[in-house]
Amino acid sequence: MISQLIKGIKEKNAPIVVGLDPMLSYIPEDITARCFAQYGETLEGAAEAVLEFNKGLVDAVYDLVPAVKPQIAMYEQFGIPGLLAFKKTVDYCHEKGLVVIGDVKRGDIGSTSAAYANAHLGQVTVGSTVCTPFDEDIATVNPYLGTDGIEPFLKVCREQKKGIFVLCKTSNPSSGEFQDRIIDGRPLYEWVAEKINEWGATAMDGDYSEVGAVVGATYPEMGAALRKMMPKAMILVPGYGAQGGRGKDLKGFFNEDGLGAIVNSSRGIIAAWKSETYKGMDYKAAARAAVTDMQADIASALKG
Amino acid sequence: MISQLIKGIKEKNAPIVVGLDPMLSYIPEDITARCFAQYGETLEGAAEAVLEFNKGLVDAVYDLVPAVKPQIAMYEQFGIPGLLAFKKTVDYCHEKGLVVIGDVKRGDIGSTSAAYANAHLGQVTVGSTVCTPFDEDIATVNPYLGTDGIEPFLKVCREQKKGIFVLCKTSNPSSGEFQDRIIDGRPLYEWVAEKINEWGATAMDGDYSEVGAVVGATYPEMGAALRKMMPKAMILVPGYGAQGGRGKDLKGFFNEDGLGAIVNSSRGIIAAWKSETYKGMDYKAAARAAVTDMQADIASALKG
Fold this sequence. Notes:
18% strand
């Protein structure tokens, strides 16, 4: 799957993933009004609004970017209807040829991680029928439980040609509380990076492995060090834009060939229509303009 | 919520939580056959079988135990119908007066953790309506992202009188890979324990705080040390029974008053009917017998 993601990045010349993390406040009122009129001010109404909003965003940007990253928490908060909107979003993005990174940050002990891996990337067998529950292409995974929590995901990656991004150094302000603590002379996130290399070696897909790393744009020096430590791992870089990461911070996340990283922006794209910069545009046009501007910002940073 | 859990433990004299982690292979064939006949060999059929199985288990043991712990991965693997069975299981357990610990191990950056906290423990506002998505009482949470990933859960705990159990030292074989690494002379899990104390101090509920810790029965010495380190935190102890933890390993997890810990068993109870010990019993009678035996095992360990 990583090779397919890289192919998309090259074809579209855009190491960009659009974070589909809808908050109700990002959705134009005409959409919410219509959905609430039809389904009431209910979880169903909210979920319908989210789905319609997402479809508009995807229509607006699918030719510009290789991938989307729906954050499942934003759907889970609307209960069962919300998760149905998540599933329909995954399917719609597939129809548009996009790679879908499920930002699910799951992780548990062995048999339970197997259930999560099957839920999001694989299949389950019911009687003699093979069913595909959520069908994302790549999932984000939490490493705190160690190898036996990751191995079931690796198995699915190898068998079904899927991928994972393992949390390494996250973009949030307090990520350092545990991740930066020094163990035998090196921060915890570097020990996680070492395991990412180990896990990745068992699931290669071309030049890169199916096991990538999540490293926040908000920590550019660490990103540059981790880039060198994990030559075969794609880095998923959240934190660009609204969280404070800028184009000029990103260069170190990439390899010399301009590959090796894919940068996520959520709010900066999907809520662009609410910002001063894109004032007056409808949400689709604003999202498209924000993607184009982000593409130029990154290209200029990589040249510089 | 923690005080309500402790009240239940005292009343039923059972520091026991039943893990509702159904695998299809645990479910008696007459149930799966009936559900597959009605809904097909589909995610719906599997989910219906899980729900019917759960209701039978809950009917069999609700008067013996204070709480249940559905592991959401086991439902997520059956997609939307599976998650609907999860929600219906939560509701059914509430009807029976049980405290529901959602074993969801969620954790993300601030705004996203807020969405998870609202999804599982709190509410979301849609227009002018307040909706309750999953409505568990307590959720398990992953600490890897640090305080700003935990704070939104604390907020909901304080406002809605809910609780969390934070992963500290997990029961699985490779939990030590990161959790046991030494930082300034102490293992990572002790640094997490220190944060659990800090977080818990902001959300007290009687003698204990709404912020408990997950510590595996499979590591009894660490459990005893952590018990002393976190005097105000309830410990949720997985790993008893099928994972290898035994009654005599548990004493150190409890305080002198016999409180302070609640021990989970999943397979050992819900799949008891498939074991040699309870051979010939139906699954409900076997589950009830397994709970009674577990209660005696723990009581004898606490006396010893």
